[in-house]
């Protein structure tokens, strides 16, 4: 049993190692390490079925970009306002792609019985999809107060927590990083946004 636990721990570490401490708007190491696909223009590859096992391309048409622009424009006044707008943008994306991907019934939080089920998402899927959306917004100049960074992870079993990953943005004025975590909630619910330092200290995972 101990050997199995050790093997499982090492497997999870291998899957999540390398996401801690990464930065850079491209977040290329995150995508490369998880068989995910970064956005290409206005096409986003939505990860689902846990661990980005499935990837469904979704093209954001002009009206989608216009909607994203309107949502994020609500946050121009301050970094805090922009974070609220980012939460609304993530909610918008989840609702926008839900019927296409089959993720409209995605269950929030730890839900291992749905591993491998198309449309269901774990934290790797959620962190990848949120990062992809934010990269599209950043590339179009829609973020005024934040830059997009690579997702990060916490929890490695040994500290009593399951591994868990989140998308990250960094406030340009203060340098403070914030978790943008859509995993705890069901599809179409606003993500949890909080200082990354506080997110790392959350327990349980």
Automatic annotation (TrEMBL):
Signal found in the keyword field: yes
Cleaved signal peptide residues: 1-17
Keywords: Signal
Protein name: Lipoprotein
Protein source organism: Polymorphum gilvum (strain LMG 25793 / CGMCC 1.9160 / SL003B-26A1)
